Amino acid sequence: MTQTIARLTLEEFILEMGSRRVSELTYEQMQRLVHRLDLSDDLVDTHTHFVDAAYARNLVCRTQSFELIVMCWRPGHESTIHDHAGSLSAITVHRGTLTSRIFVPADGVPFGKGPVALDHTDTIQPGQGWTGVDRTGIHQLANTTPAEDLVTVHCYSPPLTALNVYRVDAPQVTVLPLRYTIAEDLAA
User: Fold this and answer.
1) Angle of helix 27-36 relative to helix 10-18, nearest 10 degrees?
2) pTM for the full model?
3) Which residues share a beta bridge with 22?
4) CA angle 64, 69, 70 (to 5 degrees)
5) What burial class does residue 82 get, using C-beta atoms within 10 Å of its C-beta: 0-12 exposed, 13-18 middle, 19+ buried?
6) CB-based contacts of 163, cutoff 8 Å, min separation 6
């Protein structure tokens, strides 16, 4: 007998996330919750805004426990190689094809230091569920398609204020403050 998993509206998801201690929330628990999240196409489309220079971060909602963001990527757009400074992440593809590159500290380098090395690459398409990285995960996201726009939905717990940015060829790790609206992206 197959058990039906109850879907969560965004309002129910907000209440569920707010009822948990962020510091005790595990990656697996967050993945179970986002898999139940029922986001309408209309909600995502309302927050789908592209810019030409780089990928755009469009805030859907933010609480003390988490934030939900729609990211819009033109062909060739990619993030830095980064971790989430202790936040959990979950990502799903709404439209297009996402290239996710997972990195690990280079041989003998402790976490939080550079350089990093590519561990593996995944390609994710709509309907393949949610993915992401744990609190110590290091990754890079990209739209590597030649002509197709990409729209992804991201959940972070706790909300992000900055990323730790890594390089494959240098030991420096820098902190990058984040922007959340198209207006901020256009002003940059």
Assistant:
1) 160
2) 0.91
3) none
4) 170
5) buried
6) 80, 82, 83, 84, 85, 175, 176, 178
Instruction: Name all domains of the chain by residue range, CATH numbers in brackets.
Output: 10-187 (2.60.120.10)
Structure tokens at 40: 């309408």
Measure the CA dihedral 117/77/164/105, to 10°: -10
Of residues 70, 61, 73, 69, the one with CA closest to residue 141 = 73
State CA 83 to chain mean position distance.
Answer: 10
Residue 86: Cβ within 10 Å count: 12
- How far apart, in whole angstroms, are the C-alpha atoms of residue 61 and residue 40? 14
Q: Tell me the β-bridge partners of 117.
A: 104
At residue 27, the 3 state secondary structure works out as helix
Residue 62 makes CB contacts below 8 A (sequence gap 6+) with 68, 159, 180
Which pLDDT tens digit goes with each residue over 17-59? Answer: 999 999 999 999 999 999 999 999 999 999 999 999 999 999 9
- Residue range 81-119, pLDDT digits in tens: 999 999 999 999 999 999 999 999 999 999 889 999 999
